[in-house]
Amino acid sequence: MVISRASSESDASIHSTFASRYVRTSLPRFKMPESSIPKEAAFQIINDELMLDGNPRLNLASFVTTWMEPECDKLIMASINKNYVDMDEYPVTTELQNRCVNMIAHLFNAPLGDSEVAVGVGTVGSSEAIMLAGLAFKRKWQNKMKAQGKPYDKPNIVTGANVQVCWEKFARYFEVELKEVKLREGYYVMDPVKAVEMVDENTICVAAILGSTLNGEFEDVKLLNDLLTAKNKETGWDTPIHVDAASGGFIAPFLYPELEWDFRLPLVKSINVSGHKYGLVYAGIGWVIWRSKEDLPEELIFHINYLGSDQPTFTLNFSKGSSQVIAQYYQLIRLGYEGYRNVMENCRENAMVLKEGLEKSGRFNIISKDNGVPLVAFSFKDNSRHDEFEVSDMLRRFGWIVPAYTMPPDAQHVTVLRVVIREDFSRTLAERLVIDILKVLSELDMIPGKIPAAKVEEKEKAAKNGKKSELELEREITTVWRKFVLDRKKTNGVC
Ligand SMILES: Cc1ncc(COP(=O)(O)O)c(C=O)c1O
Predict the structure, then answer these.
(1) CA–CA distance, 308 with 321 (Å, rounded to integer)
(2) Which residues contact 47 (CB under 8 A, 6 or more apart)?
(3) How far is the CA of 98 from the centre of ligand 1 (A)?
(4) Ordered DSSP codes for 54-99
(5) In angstroms, rounded to a whole number, what is the distance separating the alpha carbons of residues 50 and 56?
(6) What's the confidence (pLDDT) of residue 24?
(7) Which atom belonging to ligand 1 lies closest to the Cα atom of 276?
(8) What is the number of other CB atoms lying within 10 angstroms of the CB of residue 481?
(9) Which domain of life is it from (predicted)?
(10) Contact predicate 208/224, CB 8 Å
(11) Which atom, in ligand 1's list, is nearest to the CA of 63?
(12) Residues 285 and 276 sit within 8 Å (Cβ to Cβ)
């Protein structure tokens, strides 16, 4: 949500051209109009205004699904008027969510007996899933500390500085200290050794990411599990692991089935995944799965009975749509293991096409890894004249939305561009994007650098004399300033 700001006088009304045959006066922008307008006019006004939004298919900033099959679109529209929370009234929808939870739990190797059902819930996305998982860890830890007669008012969570902003939200909203392992140039994920060093008796869990938002890299959950097991043994603590598999949860089981990152590792107690990322459903669905019912404290579950029978719920909100749950079930049965593997393999191959095209230009360092989320994160080898933000801006002219951002501390001096490869990003588009990036590079080469050549020369001269140039001093000040700002407020709004 964006907090809305007050209007300026010039923004007070909306004018429409096409709707003018129905509407003679302009509409107030921030006040509800006094009178009604015809439905055709309302449609036309809104439709026209929305034309100015970017094209979702060319939005390479987002992991979130932008294309589904028309058959699924039909199912979505058919269930658009069902409130998911009315479980007694829509028992089949509830049953479909339970099937999804169980399928995903099996995919993550939850240790379930033949007749045992999985413990998990559908959410609005990974952010809600993470809040729920975090609350379960916090409550379990508090219960344990209370039972031992120890203070339980200073919980902390250990993560890498590369965590998505939702972890910071969890920490702030639910009063848990976030202890972040800093990154360094060339190493952009949480170092398990440092993470385990930071664990203390108040650590409610260590959160590992399967598929860092910033460069798609998988963190080494196996090593983390081994190191933490040793620390737990030595200290007598039982610090658990949560895996934020927002993107990787629907990639690793298909592309890297041998990789141990999930419930095969004993300390992994819960996992979240975004159904709307590589689960291949439109925005609005995520999942959290617990290893067993012992890992979800009973007192967090609410029982409501006024909709019919007893309904246990563990969510942050009450009402929500049913369509996304149904769409997730559609994808799981429509594609099956084979279909998901094909989609993920195609994405990986298209990522390689893009990566190779960029490498051939000789101008970029690739920051992403081949084995991870199919995305390409890259930065200029030499950004002394032009930077990645300029490339991002210029690509907009071709319709492409490619974000540029700085890495978190202590790698904040590194800027990257990131292209997320989704199912609907074809090889032709990958090739087209390479061509457009090359065009942007040649245009940039012809225009004066943001940083004047004189300053670059001065830097070279100063380096020869062993002194700091004006440019270097400027950069140092900028870096310190950025670090100051980033330390106060995480700015990685990339999703
Ligand atoms: C690693 C990670 N965790 C959590 C999230 C938040 O996910 P959602 O948008 O499903 O709430 C993201 C989003 O990109 C992510 O990359």
Answers:
(1) 19
(2) none
(3) 22
(4) PPGGGBTT--S-----HHHHHHHHHTTT-BTT-TTT-HHHHHHHHH
(5) 12
(6) 72
(7) 10
(8) 10
(9) Eukaryota
(10) yes
(11) 14
(12) yes
The owner of tokens 């969890």 is 170
Helical (H) or strand (E) element with 273: strand 268-274
Residue 128 alpha carbon, nearest atom of ligand 1: 11
3-state helix, strand, coil in the chain (%, to 5): 45, 15, 40
Residue 401 in contact with residue 436, Cβ under 8 Å? Answer: no
Domain ranges of the chain: 17-53, 75-334, 364-488
Say how far apart CA 468 and CA 482 lie, in whole Å.
20
- Is 320 within 8 Å of 83 (Cβ atoms)? yes
Q: Write the class of the CATH domain 75-334.
A: alpha beta
Residue 253's Cβ-count burial label (10 Å; 0-12, 13-18, 19+) is buried
The alpha carbon of 494 and the centre of ligand 1 are apart by a number of angstroms equal to 9
Confidence (pLDDT) at 492: 47
Q: List, chain by chain if needed, residues with CB within 6 Å of any ligand 1 atom.
A: 63, 125-127, 164, 166, 209, 213, 244, 246-247, 274, 286, 495
Q: Beta partners for 205?
A: 157
The whole-number mean pLDDT for each consecutive block of 10 residues of the chain, a chain of 495 residues, reads: 57 67 79 91 91 90 96 98 90 94 97 92 97 98 98 98 97 98 96 98 98 97 98 98 98 98 98 98 98 95 73 88 98 98 97 97 96 97 92 94 94 95 94 96 88 59 56 54 49 54
Per-residue buried b or exposed e for 19-43, using 16+ beta carbons within 10 Å of the residue's own CB: beeebeeebeeeeeeeeebeeebee
Cα(160) to centroid(ligand 1), Å: 14
R_g over Cα of the chain: 25
Residue type, 438: L
Q: Which of 65, 66, 126 to mutate to test the pocket of ligand 1 (most atoms within 8 A of CB)?
A: 126
- Residue 439 half-sphere exposure toward CB, CA atoms < 13 A: 11
- Tell me the CATH architecture of domain 364-488: Alpha-Beta Complex (3.90)
- Nearest CA to 240 out of 263, 268, 221, 264 is that of 268
Of 399, 279, 287, 381, nearest to 340 by C-alpha is: 279
